Structure formats: C-alpha cells, structure tokens
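Narrative summary of target 7.
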Amino acid sequence: MGARRRILHTSDLHLSSTDDGACRSLQAVTELAVEAEVDLVLIAGDLFEHNRVKDDLVSFVVKRLQGLQRPIIILPGNHDCLVADSVYYREDPWRGAANIHVIKALPGETLTWPDLGVAVWGKPIDSYSGGLQPLAGVPPRGGEARWHIAVAHGCYVGSVPHPYYSFQISQEEIIASQRDYVALGHSAGFNCICDGSVKAYYCGSPSLAGTAAIVDLDGRGVRVTRYSLRK
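Modeled conformation, tokenized:
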C-alpha cells in the first residue's frame, strides 16, 4: 500500500507587508507544517496581496518557507499572477530557495517527487482578467507516482458556467482530472467541493478564516482535515 503521505494545503494569505497581520498567519501555517510533520506544502494562489510588494517581504517569506526544509509548491493566483512584473520573476529574493517550487509554465506543468511518490500538476494565473480556466488541460495520469494531485486557483461554478465569475472551475473538470486530490484556492472559507472518486477542497484563508487543510494519503485513500490556526 505504500507509506502514508501528508500534505499541508493553504492559500490566500494575501501578504502585503512585513508588519501586517497576515504575516502572523504565515507563521501559524509554517508552525502547523512542522507540528503535523507534513511531507510537502501546497500554496494554492494569492500568497501575496499584489505584485507590488517590497523585496523585504518576499525575502521574509522565502526565509520562512526555506526553514521548513521540505518541498513547497507555490501557484501564482489572481492577485500575484504571473505577469511581466510578477513577484515570482524577481531573482534576488528567490535565489538559493531550493525547496521552493513556483509553478511558472503557462500551459501547466507537473512536478514530481519520486521519493514521496507524489506528482503535482498546476497552471498559474497569468493575467488579471478572468478568461483563464485553471483546470483546463490537465494531462492524463502517468508516470510512477502513487499519488496525483492538482492545484488550482479559481471559482467553483458547479456544472453551469457563471456569466460573471472569473477563473471558473467546473465539477466536470474536477472529475475529469482523475486526480486523487484537487487543492483549490480563491475562496476565503474551508469547503468540500467534491468527495467522490476525486476529492477537492478549498482550504480557507489563514488570514481571513484562520484555517488550513491537512491531507492524508494512505492505503485508506484521501482524508482531509480542517485545522484552525493559532495566530
């Protein structure tokens, strides 16, 4: 059956400066990652409030995440999207952060950790407009990974597209992904979106709702637990 794997799923911290309350939420998230002994951390968009944040904040965040000494996957969201002046294109603050992996391939990309048996696919938001479909183009499951995860930042619309919502994610796209777990970002609250053959959850914003999700993967399948963060 293989060893248990544990993932911390977070999103929407909306960090804007080193002295705002959201930085205390980041500390709470990293403390939970250590206490829960997670194998990797998924940040499903909007780590930063905008792309104009100062380098001292970025350096602070990188140092905090480096200290976890385990893989960190960051998906650019709609606030910190992957435009020309994106915070994720700055070289100096991110230099040497070997355990931090920012998803930058615009069509989407898969990151694999053979030692963990985990593969993570994601597609970054690359525009402030809402035309992109965050789960469109998920490739078929492949390779030798035991667990296949998708990370997406957008608005869940069920089976009927919404005329005004941006970055829409449908129930059909979630099921068609054939992933074991879909880590969603963009919503402030913790919410189970799909609990069938594919499990999909919003983890909630640490800064706004004070929550994060711990995802356990083992012989019994996928189990998701809501955690309240100490801030």
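Residues 14 and 49 are 4 Å apart (CA to CA).
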